[in-house]
Amino acid sequence: MTDTVKEHKRSFYRTEMLPPKPPPPASTGVLGWMRENLFSSWWHTILTFVGLYIIWLIVSFLVQFAIIDAVWSGQDRTACLADGGREIGACWAFIRVWHNKYMFGFYPEDQQWRVLVVYAIGAVLLAFLLIPRAPGKRLVMLLLFVIYPVLAYILLYGMSSLGLPVIETTRWGGLMLTLVIAAVGIVISLPLGILFALGRRSQMPVIRFISIIFIEFWRGVPLITVLFMSSVMLPLFLPEGVTLDKVIRPLVGVALFASAYMAEVVRGGLQAIPKGQYEGAQALGLTYWQMMLLIILPQALKMVIPGIVNTFIGLFKDTSLVSIIGLFDLLGIAQASLADAKWATPVTAPTVYLYLALVYWVFCFGMSRYSIFMENYLHTGHKR
Amino acid sequence: MKRTLLGIALGAAVSVAAIASATAGTLQDVKAKGFVQCGVSQGLPGFSNPDEKGNWKGLDVDLCRAIAAAVFGDASKVKFTPLSAKERFTALQSGEVDVLSRNTTWTMQRDTALGLNFAGVNYYDGQGFMVRKSLGVTSAMQLNGAAVCTNTGTTTELNLADFFRSHKMQYEVVAFEKADEVVKAYDEGRCDVYTTDRSGLAAQRLKLKNPDEHIILPETISKEPLGPVVRQGDDQWFDLVKWTLFAMINAEELGVTSKNVDEMKKSNNPAIKRLLGIEGKFGENIGVSNDWAYNIIKQVGNYGESYDRNVGPKTPLGLSRGLNALWNKGGIMYAPPIR
Predict the structure, then answer these.
(1) ipTM of this complex
(2) pTM for the complete prediction?
(3) Helices then strands (H, E): number in chain B?
(4) In a mutagenesis test of the B interface, which of A80, A96, A340 is the best target, namely the one with the most B β-carbons within 10 Å?
């Protein structure tokens, strides 16, 4: 019988699998992808072509304006005026001339190395902190959050005893001021936000009450109101002869404002943690802070990374509001530069705003990419 | 970490606050701290705007420099605080700036109700109209039925309404928030007329595609005297700012310029001798050295020089003197004599 089966097998069955055949050419590669995603029905085909047309309109306009018709160098407005029938696009010559001011405001040019040093140290420390595999996290944390702010302050503001001339905050400006406000806002708002989120869920009525009042107050007023209050009303309340630094005022306002939003984001994460986690921690005999720092917050914060980064990005963009209270941040200095009659042309303003959009976009896009990277890195089974 | 940061922030704030001492009088304070703190605009072409080197330029800025030259003999001892229209008066009232030189219209309300004093007029502005040459309009009286582009919520809009109503003419407002939007709309032909202050018209005209195809009509429909402002109740400082401006105007009238001021010291003209401090002790009376006006003229120039440099016909703005010419040359710029 075994023999017959063997015979049988040999004659009727294959003993090895067929090699898989390639899928039909129409469903693979670029063509297949396009067929699947762009032309799967007549309706999709129409949408695809309409979409392509719109993209073509935008891209061709931008290329025409920003590259083909652009003026790259020149000394004054005559370079960017449409004479001789040529259509004039972006006036990059203007940006070139003003670029230093856009980056540093009125920070004296021979002292700008100080800003660059602050950038460089910050970038190295941030890289160590943000790259998950880099060693020495605790040391870097200490450096970044305790030593670095002091160092940055001394370098930026100056200290005559160290041979660094004092540069008043009124001379700070451009991208540098934008980054200072955003960085201080981010560094203050995250810990403060976590504290207020915990406070709002606390069992202790006084703490809970204070947290609720703080959060609801700052969430209830628009940032622009906060800035106006700090710049227009606050000086009237201060005793005569006492003035608060013009940069410190909005800095505090922006930081507290962002803290309230951060608190609500973090609270969302805290509420999403199942009660069992709290009870488990308590059953193990952990104290409140041990429970929060070791069990609850690591899970909660991970879950709300998109929300946290969202708040950071919003904060970064909101810094541009300080330009309306007379600070020359990136937007403020750009608008002031438009008042330069030497360069007034029909294309100057569009060029400047295109440039600003690009700069803001690069920063915000960078933050959002990092947040996606962190989410993927930290995801431990919650991801669907 | 946040405590450290807050500590730093507060430390910085207090260290800056410590500069301002008890107010003995603005002049004493200014002399003690070593510079004049001057409030300017966030950027208005020809009046106060930073250039690409980061230096402030403009008619209003020159006045600030002149005040510094009068007080310290050094026009560079001045610091500028850019102020928005909303915060400018608070900044002056709270002592954040010593003088506000920010294209501010002198009105009764501001002069009397805000605890401020206007120390003079350094530019007589007024609202005007710009139209396309192709319309063939030569007077604002021919604008019946026109569509007018302007900024929202400013006195410009009110003046416009007053003007058209008082002349029983029809019009249609096309209003925008920002000056750049208004110019763009006008350039694209969404309205026939663009109205704002005449100095503003000249500046915005540069942003049009073909500036030569547009003309500014002769009528001026409002009075906008712009001038420096100081806190009320400090007459010494008020006098100093006022006479700094007068010295610049008097210098032009007497033909003293930054170039010839050294030769003029030898002049026999008693008015020039008094101006330059050769005769009399006029500087001491306002609390500064007697060569105060010499320093102003030498380092900043007379009013005419400042005008020509910042807004005059040879600048991109190309504003003719008009009302701002001296009183003996067809304008209304007039300064009391130094004697």
Answers:
(1) 0.81
(2) 0.84
(3) 14, 13
(4) A340
